[in-house]
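Suppose a colleague, Dr. K., hands you the sequence of a protein chain of 130 amino acids and asks what its three-dimensional shape might be. Before reaching for any lab equipment, you can write down a predicted structure in token form. Begin with the sequence itself:
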Amino acid sequence: MQRNLIVLGFGLLVGAAIGFYLGWFVLPAELVDVSPADLETEFQADYLRLIASTYAADQDLNAAAARIGSLGRQDWPQWLREETVNQVIGDPTGAETAHMVGLARAMGIESPAFDQAIPPTPAAEPEVSP
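The predicted structure, expressed as tokens, is then:
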């Protein structure tokens, strides 16, 4: 009985090793022509936050609009407003919130909730003594 369990355990270990080798090295999955439109809704919202952060850094509204367009959403103005309002409600003082509000306003989208966003305070610079 104990010998059978050892053989079974060894067989499972060898099978798992072979499966790992085949899955990672011989026949790995390849994603081809995947666009942000293929993301699930939750991850599209994360992508939108990244777009807003990028816009805050480079102020390139055309690139931000193209990135939002790559999500393939026909309702993007309403969706951007909703996501930004949700961000303001969830974290009114965060930098991500300021980025989202900045992007929405640059796109011509407004909401009374945007006024509740409090710009983050810049970190105090440490004093350097000579």
